[in-house]
Structures are given as C-alpha cells and as structure tokens.
What we know:
Blueprint: H1 3-28, H2 30-39, H3 43-82, H4 85-108, H5 115-142, H6 147-167, H7 174-219
Helix pairs in contact: 1-2, 1-3, 1-7, 2-3, 3-6, 3-7, 4-6, 5-6, 5-7, 6-7
Amino acid sequence: MTIRNWLKFFSIAVLIGGSITGVLGLFIRWDDVFAVPFANGEWGEIIAGFVWLIIIGITMSLISQMGFFAYLTVHQFGMNMFRTLTLWNWVQLLIIAVVIFDLIAFRFAPNAETTGQTVLYGSLLAILLGVAFVTAYFKAKWTRKSAFISALFFMIAITTLEWLPALMVQSGNADSWVTLLLFPLMAVNAFQLLMLPKYNEKSLEVRQKRKEMRTGKKNNKPTVAKG
C-alpha cells in the first residue's frame, strides 16, 4: 500500500472510531457524564465530555488497527504452520468456539447479577456474532469464498481480544463501558477487513502508472548519433 492510501485508510478508521464512540456515548454514558452538566446548563462540560469520548474512540481505533495488522501476521503464520487452508480454518473455528465459551463462562456469567445484565450481555454477544457473520459474508462475496472463516475469526476472536480491557473493568459503570467500547471496535474492524483490498488495488494502480511513466520517459529519451 502506498503512503497516501495508507494515510487515507488510517484516517477513515480513526474517524469511524471517534465518531461512533462520541455519538453513542451521548446515549450510553448520558447519566454518568452528561446528565448533571445538562441540567445545570454547563455546556462547556458537555463539550469536554463529548471530546473526551471522541478521544477514547480514536484510541479504540488505534487498538483495532494494531490488532488488524497483528492478525495479518498471525494469519500468514497459521497458513505456513498448518500448510493447508482447510486445516488452518478448522483451527480458527476451534479458537472461535473457545473465545465464545470464555466470553459466556468467564466474562458475562460471573458479572450477570441481575436479569437486566443478563439481557445486556446476551444482546452484546448476539450483536458481536451478527456483525461478524454479516462482515464475513460480504468479505467472502467480494473477495473469495475461502475468506469467510478467516474473516469470522478476525471479527470474533480478535475483536474480543481488543475488547478485553473493557470486559475487565470492575467499577460501578462497567456495563456502560463494556457496551460503548464494543461498537467502535466492530465498526473499525469491519471497515479494515472489507476495505483493505480496495486500497491495495488503488496502490497497485498507482505503482503501475508510475512504472509506465518511467518506462515512457526512458523510451522517449533522444538518441545521440555516433560518429
């Protein structure tokens, strides 16, 4: 990928993470962050809180991007280690099952002390799986069918890994953080997974044009007559 296309790719991912966290944070963190300043007419505090949420979203975007490029390395390592895509896909499916079991048994179940929390965690898990399957479907449709399992693995296993800091929060507003931080991670991860081939194609086109221009310049150089 060329530097220009990488900067576009990076900037859009940051914009997605920041904007989603900022907008959803107005609703999810309203009681904790915005309710009192709004009641008192403290608009400076409201703007500061909104900017703070955007910064958190940008941080989540950066974590997501690091996770994505780490996954590309892991995926290549897995392909080399297990030799065949079929075997590597089975390994990824096994890891997906372990991750889902870990989420249910060790993250959600111990913290689900009320019916409301049970519904919340169950809904978040359903959203994560739903977004993962939809993203994997389009990844397979737009590239190749064999990419489905790898896309599913990335959207479930890697997103959960990036989500762990929020899942480990034990403070009184832990549920709001768990809810809020899932959405920018899913959105940025889906964007990266689906749009990376497009930016790679653009970069190849740019390199090809540059190569043609260099070749044309060499061919158009005047020849010096000998003698």
